[in-house]
Amino acid sequence: MTLALAILRSKFREYNTPFLHSTPCTQSMDIEVELFATLRQGRFRRKRLVLPPDSTLDDVCRHVGIDLQEAAFVTVNGTTATRQQALKSGDAVGLFPALGGG
């Protein structure tokens, strides 16, 4: 057991990478979604989603059950985005309805 541990430690130092986490997980990504104004009605305010890699904002809308025309304004990490924009793990998505006033 001690010899095996010594070999693993030497390999760890040799490659200078963690041997337990050497390959990144590409099976899914975590996204935080926040709904604003009328989009919250009957839904949630903020929710963490686990989605497949290369998901877009359109995919997020479909996943949470929001019609694509309902989400008139979308943001990723606080910046205006298009609904076809690809997402990456850790992104924060904001979905806003069309705003009106008078």
Query: Can you count the beta strands?
Result: 5
Helix tally equals 2
CATH secondary-structure class of the domain at 29-96 = Alpha Beta
In CATH terms, the superfamily of the domain at 29-96 is Beta-grasp domain
Distance between the termini: 75 Å
Computed structural class? alpha+beta
Strand order of the largest sheet: 2-1-5-3-4
Strand content: 15-25%
Helix content: 10-25%
- Which spans of ≥5 residues are poorly predicted at pLDDT below 50? 11-25
Overall mean pLDDT: 80
Categorize the overall geometry: globular
Task: List the secondary-structure elements in sequence, H or E.
Answer: HEEHEEE
What does this structure look like?
The protein has 102 residues and is an alpha+beta fold. The protein has a domain at 29-96: Beta-grasp domain (Ubiquitin-like (UB roll)). It has helices spanning 2-15, 57-64, and strands at 29-35, 46-51, 73-76, 79-80, 92-96. The protein has a five-stranded mixed beta sheet, with helices on one face. The N and C termini lie far apart (75 Å). 13% of the residues are buried. The model is unreliable at 11-25 (pLDDT under 50).
